[in-house]
C-alpha cells in the first residue's frame, strides 16, 4: 500500500497545478530519433525522443532535479534559460563556462531551486548547434494559492517556435566554419515541431490548437529558433500580452508579437468567434540585408464543432522588414510594477559599461571559399575563445591560465559605430571576463555596429534578469540619451534585442556569485565569438557565496 501511495505522490508531483510538491524530478535521456519533416527523414538529437522536448513543470520555490543521461555521440550540456540559478551556477549549463560537457555514456544531475520567479522559460542544449532540436518549455506556476495578476485563463498551451533543416545541423555549421562564410539558412520554421502546410510537401501536417467558444487560453510562446526572430499572429484574434521572460507586464492587446531567439511571451486569447478554423502564423523578422528562411510556419486554431474540411481563415504576415510593427510591440512592454511585483530598477550605478556588438573579418589561410578570410563576431572587438576547462571551475579551484579578467569596459578604439566602418575589420581574440564585486549595480549600453552589416542582436545574460531602461537608433549619446531612460517601469527580461543600427541600455544588480555567460542568441553569432562572461565575486558569508560543486560535476 505504501509503495502505491509513493508512486501516486511522485506522479502527482509532475502536475503541480494540483499539488504542492517541493521537489520535481525529471529524467532526460538524450537520444537520436529518426524524424520526418518536409517529406524527408533524418536522425536528430532529442530528449526522450521528442521534438520539441518534454515540458518541465514546477512552482515558484520548488527544487528541480533533472538527471541528464547522454546516449549520443556528441558531448552534451543543458541550459535552463532564464532560471536565476542563485548560487547554483554549476547547474546553469553552458559548456566550458560553468561546466565541462556530459560525455557520451555519462550523466549529470542538474539541481536548482526556482526562487522568486514564475511564468514561462525554456531549456535547451548549450553546446554545438544541438539546441536546434534539443529544447523544451519550463512552466513555472505561482505558489499554490497565489493568483495571476490578471483574470485566470480557462486553459493553457505551450507554443514552441523553432527552425528545421533538412540537412544535419552539425554538418551545416561545420561547413560554414570550414568555409569562413555564413551557414545555409533553415528550410522551414516550426510551431510545436511542425511546419504546417508546405506547397512542395502536401502530406506535411501542422499543429492544431483546439478551442471551445467563449473560453480563454493562455499561450506560452517560446522562440527556440537558432538564428531568426519571428512574428507571431492568429487570424481574426487579438492577443493580450501579460508576461515576457517570466516577468509580468502591464497587459496590452495586439494582433502581432515579435519574439527573438531566447525570449518567451505569454498571451491570452479569447475564443470569441463561435466557430471556424483560423490560421496561426510564425514568420521571420529581419530589417537588415541578411539572408533568412522566408518560409512561414502555420498552425490552426480549431473551434470545437467545426468540420475538419472547413476552409481556414487566413492572415497576412508582416513584411520581413516590418521594423515599425516590431517597435510598436517592443515599445508597449512595461513592467507590471505593482506593490506585489515591483520593478526594482537600480537608480545608482556602480559600473557603467559600453559594449559594441557586431561582426568582423579575420585572416584564415584555410578558408578558400572566404578568399583567405573568416567572418567573426565580437563584443568590444574581442572575439571570445572557448576554453577547454570550464571557467567556473577555474575560478572556484584557482586554476591559472584559463581566462583573464581584463575584458574592456569600453571599446578599445572609437569610431562611428553605425556609420562608415573602420578600414581594419579585424578583432582580437581571448577568453576574457569582466569582474564585478557582489551586489554591484551595473548599467550596460549595448551598441550595434555597421561592420559588414547592422543587425538586430538578441543578447542573453545568464544568471540575472535586467531592466531595459532605454533604446535608440544610431550611436548612443552618453550626455543626452540617459535623460530619456525609463527608471520607473521598464520591462524586465533575460534576453533583449539590440536594434539594428542602434543601441539598448540595461541595468541589473550583480547579486548572484559565479561566472555568467552573456552572448548573442543568434547561434551563428555565438559560434563566431559574440560572447563574454561576467565573474561575480562572493559577498559576505555563505548566503552570498557560490555553493561548492556537486560530486557528479562532469570532467573535461
UniProtKB/TrEMBL annotation:
The record's subcellular location field reads: Secreted, Extracellular space, Apoplast
Which catalysed reactions does the entry list for this protein? 4 hydroquinone + O2 = 4 benzosemiquinone + 2 H2O
Pfam families in UniProt: Cu-oxidase, Cu-oxidase_2, Cu-oxidase_3
The primary site where this protein sits is secreted
Signal peptide positions on this chain: 1-21
UniProt entry tagged with the keyword Transferase: no
* Enzyme Commission number, as recorded: 1.10.3.2
- For this protein, what does the record note about how its cofactor is bound? Binds 4 Cu cations per monomer.
Q: Which UniProt keywords apply?
A: Apoplast, Copper, Glycoprotein, Lignin degradation, Metal-binding, Oxidoreductase, Repeat, Secreted, Signal
Please give the Gene3D superfamilies that the UniProt record associates with this protein. Answer: Cupredoxins - blue copper proteins
- Domain Plastocyanin-like: start-end pairs: 30-143, 157-305, 407-539
Q: Which cofactor does it need?
A: Cu cation
The protein's job, in short, is:
Lignin degradation and detoxification of lignin-derived products.
Indicate the family of this protein. Answer: Belongs to the multicopper oxidase family.
Its recorded name reads: Laccase
Q: Lineage from the top down? A: Eukaryota, Viridiplantae, Streptophyta, Embryophyta, Tracheophyta
Amino acid at each position: 500500500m505504501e509503495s502505491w501511495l509513493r508512486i501516486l505522490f511522485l506522479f502527482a508531483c509532475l502536475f503541480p497545478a494540483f499539488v504542492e510538491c517541493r521537489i520535481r524530478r525529471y529524467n532526460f535521456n538524450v537520444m537520436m530519433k529518426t524524424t520526418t519533416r518536409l517529406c524527408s527523414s533524418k536522425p536528430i538529437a532529442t530528449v526522450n525522443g521528442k521534438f520539441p522536448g518534454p515540458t518541465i513543470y514546477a512552482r515558484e520555490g520548488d527544487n528541480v532535479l533533472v538527471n541528464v543521461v547522454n546516449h549520443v555521440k556528441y558531448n552534451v550540456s543543458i541550459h535552463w534559460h532564464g532560471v536565476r540559478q542563485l548560487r547554483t551556477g554549476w547547474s546553469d549549463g553552458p559548456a566550458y563556462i560553468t561546466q565541462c560537457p556530459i560525455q557520451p555514456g555519462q550523466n549529470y544531475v542538474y539541481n536548482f531551486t526556482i526562487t522568486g520567479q514564475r511564468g514561462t522559460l525554456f531549456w535547451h542544449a548549450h553546446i554545438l548547434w544541438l539546441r536546434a532540436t534539443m529544447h523544451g518549455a519550463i512552466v513555472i506556476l505561482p505558489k499554490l494559492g497565489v493568483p495571476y495578476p490578471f483574470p485566470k485563463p480557462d486553459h493553457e498551451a505551450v507554443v514552441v517556435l523553432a527552425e528545421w533543416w533538412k540537412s544535419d545541423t552539425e554538418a551545416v555549421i561545420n561547413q560554414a566554419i570550414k568555409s569562413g562564410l555564413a551557414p545555409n539558412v533553415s528550410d522551414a520554421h516550426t510551431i510545436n515541431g511542425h511546419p504546417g502546410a508546405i506547397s512542395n510537401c502536401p502530406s506535411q501536417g501542422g499543429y492544431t490548437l483546439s478551442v471551445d467558444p467563449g473560453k480563454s487560453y493562455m499561450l506560452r510562446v517560446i522562440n527556440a529558433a537558432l538564428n531568426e526572430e519571428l512574428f507571431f499572429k492568429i487570424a481574426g484574434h487579438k492577443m493580450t500580452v501579460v508576461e515576457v521572460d517570466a516577468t509580468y507586464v502591464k497587459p496590452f492587446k495586439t494582433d502581432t508579437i515579435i519574439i527573438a531567439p531566447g525570449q518567451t511571451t505569454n498571451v491570452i486569447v479569447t475564443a470569441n468567434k463561435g466557430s471556424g478554423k483560423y490560421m496561426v502564423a510564425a514568420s521571420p523578422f529581419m530589417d537588415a540585408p541578411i539572408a533568412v528562411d522566408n518560409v512561414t510556419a502555420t498552425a490552426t486554431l480549431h473551434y470545437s464543432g467545426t468540420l475538419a474540411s472547413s476552409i481556414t481563415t487566413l492572415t497576412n504576415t508582416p513584411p520581413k522588414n516590418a521594423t515599425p510593427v516590431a517597435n510598436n510591440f517592443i515599445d508597449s512592454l512595461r513592467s507590471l510594477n505593482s506593490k506585489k511585483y515591483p520593478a526594482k530598477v537600480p537608480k545608482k550605478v556602480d559600473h557603467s559599461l559600453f559594449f559594441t556588438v557586431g561582426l568582423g573579418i579575420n585572416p584564415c589561410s584555410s578558408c578558400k571559399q572566404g578568399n583567405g578570410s573568416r567572418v567573426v563576431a565580437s563584443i568590444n572587438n574581442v572575439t571570445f575563445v572557448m576554453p577547454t576547462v570550464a571557467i567556473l571551475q577555474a575560478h572556484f579551484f584557482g586554476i591559472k591560465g584559463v581566462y583573464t579578467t581584463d575584458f574592456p569596459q569600453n571599446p578599445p578604439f572609437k569610431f562611428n559605430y553605425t556609420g562608415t566602418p573602420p578600414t581594419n575589420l579585424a578583432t582580437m581574440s581571448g577568453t576574457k571576463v569582466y569582474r564585478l564585486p557582489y551586489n554591484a549595480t551595473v548599467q550596460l549600453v549595448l551598441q550595434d555596429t555597421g561592420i559588414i552589416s547592422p543587425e538586430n542582436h538578441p543578447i542573453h545574460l545568464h544568471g540575472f534578469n535586467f531592466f531595459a531602461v532605454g533604446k535608440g537608433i544610431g550611436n548612443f549619446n552618453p550626455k543626452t540619451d540617459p535623460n530619456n531612460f525609463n527608471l520607473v517601469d521598464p520591462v524586465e527580461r533575460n534576453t533583449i534585442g539590440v536594434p539594428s543600427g542602434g543601441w539598448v541600455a540595461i541595468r541589473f544588480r550583480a547579486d548572484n556569485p559565479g561566472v555568467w555567460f552573456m552572448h548573442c542568441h543568434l547561434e551563428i553569432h555565438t559560434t563566431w565569438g559574440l560572447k563574454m562572461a561576467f565573474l561575480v565575486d562572493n559577498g559576505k558569508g555563505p548566503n552570498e557565496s557560490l555553493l561548492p560543486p556537486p560530486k557528479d560535476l562532469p570532467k573535461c
